[in-house]
Design a protein that fits this description.
11 strands; six-stranded antiparallel sheet; five-stranded mixed sheet; Beta-Lactamase; Alpha-Beta Plaits; alpha+beta; disordered C terminus; 429 residues; rod-shaped
Length: 429
């Protein structure tokens, strides 16, 4: 049933599944790893850009004035003057959402300047201002040492996106330096990610299409491999079967018979109440049939005898063409009485075939039976060979049963029944 299903599909399902899964894993790795690295690289480029914007913003702030403002003594005029360069810069940066400065006191950050404090800019971009000296509410996305890095004069950019009521953004901070080179606060730039995320969505669609394509290609390649494997196995089976079967008769040949018969005799029960039989069958006057009717008729005789041997003469019987006009019927679990009945029926079936109008032919049959434990197939074969000689010597078109009187005729030189590939019968036509 499973082989029929495999032939219907043209592949072995387990090979198709296994190869497809393996190829899919490899294909997904080839697709996902570069895409993941590319996504991370794009984020790093963005972080670098945001950090550069923060440094540019820090460079336009008067560090000395900012130090004065951090001390909390800034007037409205001083705040406006210090904020003016940032306002001009912010107006030139449409992608910058918030631009502000901060100071630190007792390891706590607070706002100093905020471009959203300008009413016009706040109205244009819908910004909410932070008041002068308003404490900064630390968010979870900030690492615990970010203030330490800024105090050390380093630029800090958050590792991941942030989100609030206004959307997604990425924040970068850069230190502000006074005339002596000391850090006098830092600038913060909240970079709007609307355009970046739109591009990422486009990349994501490409990624999904790539994944679908990889899975589809995996299925195709898996099927191609499974199909190739199926055809290769089928070709191996054909070669194996051709090496084990006779092409003309369709029966097992010597090699196939050796495998099949020995597996029965060596793999079955070994009780001494079991018997096995062998019937050696030889077509009488086969050379004369070929000379009279032609080789095509001779081939048809072989084919018809093969059909007779394939009949259900006994359960488990193994029909074999040894070569030429020589055949064998191995019958497991068969005593002598049953073997006689099989031989008699075989002769009757051959006669019936001849009576149907086909080219006439007759056969001689040598029958031997051995008891389990008495000997292997080699002994059974030699005894059947001796019985066949007796059948041919007694007039042909008959069968003979091996008995003790034929013991001297056993061919003890042919110890291996199939290995020597010798001729079964010793009688000249």
């Amino acid at each position: 049933m499973r082989q029929d299903k495999e032939r219907g599909w043209g592949v072995q399902p387990h090979v198709l599944l296994g190869s497809t899964v393996l190829i899919a894993v490899l294909m997904l790795a080839l697709v996902l790893i570069p895409q993941t690295l590319s996504r991370q690289a794009r984020l790093e480029v963005l972080r670098s850009h945001v950090g550069e914007e923060a440094r540019v913003a820090a460079s336009v702030v008067d560090g000395d004035a900012h130090r004065h403002l951090i001390e909390g003594h800034g007037t409205a005029e001083e705040l406006d003057a210090a904020r003016a360069p940032l306002l001009r810069l912010h107006r030139a940066w449409p992608e910058a959402r918030y631009v502000y400065t901060m100071g630190m006191h007792d390891d706590r950050a607070f706002f100093v300047l905020d471009t959203a404090q300008d009413p016009l800019l706040a109205a244009e971009r819908g910004l909410r201002m932070s008041r002068y000296l308003e404490p900064f509410q630390l968010r979870e996305e900030y690492e615990s040492d970010w203030l330490v890095e800024l105090a050390a004069g380093l630029t800090y950019v958050n590792p991941q996106y942030q989100h609030d009521d206004y959307g997604y953004f990425l924040t970068g901070h850069a230190p502000i330096r006074d005339s002596t080179g000391q850090v006098s606060g830092f600038v913060g730039v909240d970079f709007d990610l609307e355009y970046f995320l739109a591009e990422e969505a486009r990349f994501r669609r490409i990624e999904l299409a790539s994944l679908f394509g990889a899975l589809l290609l995996s299925l195709v390649l898996g099927w191609v491999y499974a199909r190739h494997h199926f055809l290769q196995q089928a070709e191996l089976r054909r070669h194996y079967e051709s090496s084990m079967n006779d092409s003309l008769s369709g029966l097992l040949n010597r090699r196939g018979a050796d495998t099949a018969i020995r597996s029965v005799m060596e793999g079955g029960a070994t009780g001494h109440d079991r018997f096995h039989a062998a019937l050696l069958v030889d077509i009488d006057h086969f050379k004369q049939i070929n000379d009279t009717y032609g080789h095509a008729k001779g081939d048809s005789v072989i084919a018809r005898l093969a059909e007779v041997l394939r009949m259900p003469l006994h359960a488990g019987a193994v029909p074999v063409r040894l070569g030429g006009d020589e055949f064998l019927l191995f019958v497991p679990d068969c005593d002598q009485d049953a073997a006689k009945r099989i031989a008699s029926r075989l002769l009757d079936e051959v006669r019936a075939t001849t009576a149907s109008g086909a080219a006439p032919f007759e056969v001689s049959v040598g029958v031997a039976v051995v008891q389990a434990g008495e000997g292997g197939f080699d002994l059974l074969y030699r005894r059947a060979d001796s019985a066949l000689y007796e059948a041919k010597s007694g007039g042909k078109n008959r069968y003979a049963i091996f008995d003790a009187s034929m013991a001297d005729m056993e061919d003890t030189d042919g110890a291996d029944a199939f290995g020597s590939f010798r001729t079964v019968t010793q009688t000249a036509e």
